[in-house]
Design a protein that fits this description.
By secondary structure, this protein is an alpha+beta fold. The protein is built from 13 helices and five strands. Helix 1 runs antiparallel to helix 2 and helix 7 packs antiparallel against helix 8 (238-274).
């Protein structure tokens, strides 16, 4: 752009100066204009930072000097490409068109020997340095009209070029924003996935470790009670002492087995934290967490061996057709219910009812009396039940828990037979 603008300014200036000799005063002005043409073209280099100033400065130079309108039109195209204001666009096109008309008509109205437009309509090999006076093939009017049309056409072309560049810039900016938004969405999705994985690991850690540790605590209490009883048996028979010693040994064996299980579960949680890419595989439903008679018997047996009194009513049918994810949620619900009862009412009996039928889905009801201290606590439901309730509702089920007027704590859960993927807010309303 800069060389073309300089060249056109020099051409227009040289033609305009052709009618003056070196002795004419006007010749000095045209010499100065020739020297000014070079820095005038360099003005376009500032069009990125100051497009409006460059445009209006170029218009002033074209008016002040006998320059071609190419300089102002290039500055106008740059301005339109960089400013999207409608007012700026209208003013720039109007001013650019006027400057183009002035510059081209100024040249067309010059004498034939001092006009670039007259050269286009002159007879070949006449005028200039040929030694033959210039001979025009047309009159002045067609030349003036042609110059005006050319001025308006060049203005339209410059305006279209500027608007096209603007549209490309807007499209590129929109694409960049879209890419940035997509990148941000990808980052947010990754963060969400990481948070969901962290929540799943935390829930798994709570479900497994809390269950094992509560069994450990209960067995440790039983072991302490047996030890205290043995210490007081100073006059007892040898058989009674041996019986209590065997009981203590069994309790110690239970504690050792449960401690080993808790340690394995802790190692599993640590392994998931170290290798999050494999955590989803480890969090998937398995036979150990499925709602089967074997897993329920093992869960209930562990609780009874720890000293809990558990009364059960279990009616499960066609479990092979139950969704694995729903089966794991049901298993974790029973596990959390027993763990919750051990924490808040260790000596109270627990009633467990499990119905699993394809026609009605899965129904779990767990109840146990509360101690006097627990009845007065406002936050009997910890994070375990809250997490279980959230998982149940995310699977399309219902969950309600709370104490009734008799001081009995209930957990009532219903799950569909087939997971529907409904996302709902947890309903943790207490039972009346």
């Amino acid at each position: 752009m800069v060389p073309i603008a300089i060249f056109m300014c020099l051409v227009q200036t040289s033609f305009a100066a052709a009618r003056y000799g070196s002795s004419d005063p006007q010749f000095l002005w045209f010499m100065f204009s020739t020297l000014a043409a070079i820095p005038s073209g360099l003005l376009l280099l500032a069009r990125d930072r100051h497009p409006e100033a460059v445009f209006w400065g170029s218009c002033a130079l074209v008016i002040a000097f006998p320059f071609d309108s190419m300089l102002a039109l290039m500055a106008m195209a740059s301005l339109l490409a960089r400013r999207s204001s409608r007012a700026v666009t209208v003013r720039a096109i109007a001013a650019g068109g006027a400057i183009a008309l002035i510059a081209q008509l100024r040249d067309a109205l010059n004498p034939p020997d001092a006009s670039l437009w007259h050269v286009f309509f002159a007879k070949p090999h006449t005028g200039g340095n040929t030694g033959t006076p210039i001979v025009m093939l047309v009159g002045e009017t067609p030349i003036i009209i042609t110059a005006a049309i050319a001025a308006l056409t060049s203005t339209a072309i410059a305006a279209l070029v500027g608007l096209h560049l603007r549209s490309k810039a807007i499209a590129a900016s929109a694409e960049a924003k879209a890419d940035a938004a997509a990148s941000q969405a990808h980052t947010l999705q990754a963060d969400l996935n990481n948070q969901q994985l962290a929540d799943a690991i935390a829930a798994e850690a709570h479900d497994t470790l809390a269950h094992s540790l509560s069994l450990l605590a209960l067995n440790a209490s039983a072991l302490q009670a047996e030890s205290d009883k043995l210490c007081t048996m100073t006059q007892s028979s040898e058989d009674a002492v041996r019986t209590h010693a065997d009981s203590i040994a069994q309790q110690a064996q239970q504690i050792r087995r449960q401690a080993a299980g808790a340690l394995d579960e802790a190692h599993t949680i640590i392994d998931m934290l170290r290798h999050p890419d494999q955590a989803y595989i480890q969090l998937a439903p398995s036979d150990d967490t499925a709602l089967t008679r074997e897993s329920l018997n093992e869960l209930i047996t562990d609780a009874r061996q720890a000293g809990m009194r558990v009364d059960t009513w279990i009616d499960i049918q066609q479990l092979s057709e139950l969704d694995d994810a729903l089966g794991k949620i049901a298993y974790r619900t029973i596990q959390e219910g027993l763990t919750n009862a051990r924490r808040h009412a260790p000596d109270a009996p627990v009633a467990l009812q499990v119905d699993a039928l394809p026609s009605s889905g899965v129904h779990i009801h767990i109840s146990n009396p509360l101690t006097a201290d627990e009845r007065t606590r406002p936050d009997r439901a910890g994070s375990g039940l809250t997490g279980i309730a959230a998982r149940i509702h995310s699977a399309g089920g219902t969950c309600a828990y709370g104490a009734d007027e008799r001081g009995v704590f209930h957990i009532d859960v219903r799950l569909p037979w087939i997971r529907n993927g409904a996302e709902q807010q947890p309903n943790v309303a207490g039972l009346a």
